[in-house]
Amino acid sequence: QVQLVESGGGLVQPGGSLRLSCTASGTIVRDNAMGWYRQAPGKPRELVASITTGGRTNYADSVKARFTISRDNAENTVYLQLNNLKPEDTAVYFCNHVGGYFPWGQGTQVTVSS
Fold first, then answer.
1. Would you give the DSSP letter of residue 44?
2. In sequence order, what DSSP letters do the residues of 70-107 get, joined into one string?
3. CA distance 111 to 114
4. 53-80 pLDDT, tens digit each
5. Any idea what DSSP says for residue 108?
6. pLDDT of 1 higher than 90
7. Contact by Cβ (8 Å): 53, 31
8. Measured distance CA(47)–CA(24) in Å, rounded
9. How far is CA 30 from CA 35, 50, 60, 76, 106, in A?
10. Nearest residue to 38 via CA among 111, 95, 85
11. Are 9 and 81 within 8 A, CB to CB?
12. Which residues does 28 contact at the CB level (< 8 Å), separation at least 6?
C-alpha cells in the first residue's frame, strides 16, 4: 500500500519561505516521476512542480523562480522549497506521482498572510 505523508506547512508572512517534505513508502520516490500539487479553497487541484527520476524539473508559471522541487532517493522523500511566498500561494499542498496515480495523503496547509 502506497502511503504519502506531507509535512512542513504553516502560517507565513508574504515574502517568507517554507520547506515542504513528502515521505513515501517503499521506493516510490526513487522509481517514479513525482510532483507537488496544491488545492486552494473552491479551486481544483493543480500540479505546481514535478521532477523526473533523472532529476529534470518543471514548474507552473505561477511558481517558477520561486519554488524548487528536489528529491532524496535514499530517504524516499521529495521536497518543495517555497520562497517569496504570496497570499495566492495559500492552499493545501500534496505530493503524488505526476499523474496522480497513488492514493492522496492528507496534505499540508500553507497559509500566506500578514
1. -
2. EEETTTTEEEEEE-S--GGG-EEEEEEETT--SPP---
3. 10
4. 999 999 999 999 999 999 999 999 999 9
5. E
6. no
7. yes
8. 18
9. 13, 14, 23, 7, 21
10. 95
11. no
12. 2, 4, 34, 76, 97, 102
Cβ atoms of residues 57 and 50 within 8 Å: yes
Euclidean distance between CA atoms 97 and 112, whole angstroms = 26
Task: Dump pLDDT digits (tens) for 13-61.
Answer: 999 999 999 999 888 888 999 999 999 999 999 999 999 999 999 999 9
Helix %, strand %, coil % of the chain (to 5): 5, 45, 45
Phi, psi (rounded to 5 degrees) for 89: -85, -5
Q: Which residue, chain included where needed, has cell 517558477?
A: 64
2 pLDDT above the threshold of 90: no
Q: Cell 521536497, residue?
A: 79
Q: How far is residue 61's CA from residue 75's CA, in Å, rounded to a whole number?
A: 29
Output phi, psi for 68, to 5 deg.
Answer: -135, 125
If you count them, how many residues does the chain have? Answer: 114
